[in-house]
Amino acid sequence: MSYTAETLQLLAPDGTLGYTEATEPYRARIDALDDGTLSEFYRQMAVTRRFDIEAGNLQRQGQLALWIPSLGQEAAQVGSGFAARAQDHIFPAYREHAVGRLRGLDLTRIIAMLRGLTHGGWNPAETGNFHLYTLVIGSQALHATGYAMGLRFDGLVGTGDPERDAAVLVYFGDGATSQGDVNEAYVFAQSYETPQVFFLQNNHWAISVPVSVQSKTPLFHRPRGFGIPSVQIDGNDVLISYAATAESLDAARSGQGPRFIEALTYRMGAHTTSDDPTKYRTDDEVAYWKARDPIARYETFLRVRGASEEFFAEVATEGNDLAADARRQTLAMEPPPAESMFRHVYGAEHPLMTEQAEWLARYEASFGGEA
Questions:
Q1: Of all residues in the chain, what percent carry a pLDDT higher than 90?
Q2: Under which main EC class is this enzyme filed (predicted)?
Q3: The domain that contains 169 carries what CATH number?
């Protein structure tokens, strides 16, 4: 439906691995992956999907105000997430649950945010440089570009030291490409030759507006107009997602400037749980993409390679355990104390926050009785 002659793919929908003249340069990266890493790709995709489904169920049962599903986009996220190094910084939108998990984020932190119990913050230094979810569409592209400019100013690019050179990976959706912030980010990224990769997850729908309305040309052509090299990949193929992102991040870290990847994928579920996609999508379209499911095709690939039934059963058990634990933790969550709203406004204790917290305590006490 949206694939073009330039779409890069290694793993076909039937699970077969093949190379073309365009994808041959990625062969060495795939050949270098050991069985443990290949298995981990599947584990992370499958376990995150199980968690994602459980979180959606919790919302439907009144335990969350909202849930933002990532169903169908696991390969784009896991492949690209594996390509990042420890020193790289990740700027997500609000659907990158798999990437967050890869970087060490406890996914119940997302649940707490969407349950209304936190301001949505976590310390990126404690989550593998995985920065905060951004609900303002496209603004993270500017945040990422500014951070990448800082990496260049600090001399952390192009040193030749693989343990030191760093890059920024920023995620956004097709709807965000229509935002001024994203296009302004392209300008600054190219002007300053920032070490960053723009990773577009084109899931074909900006809520109820199809990508065909937003752009009459493939979206990966746009950054070329800003002077940013770009590729389009099959975002439901975890292998090309990994290889293309690794290639782009290596270029960015070495000082060659920004890169852009358009990963063609599909949002199998709703935009959020407040949305009803049956109002604007056809059954035929959904069936087309269901036949290209990222996890199903990769499972076929692994089985051909000799993966055992025990492995798949183990992953299923891990997913169920994670889902059950997430449910248990969610039901046990308590509202935070009112004073918690003052804790992280500033990086250190601040007299204004202390004064406001004390005023609130006096105000609530003035009513008497229990709070």
A1: 92
A2: oxidoreductase
A3: 3.40.50.970
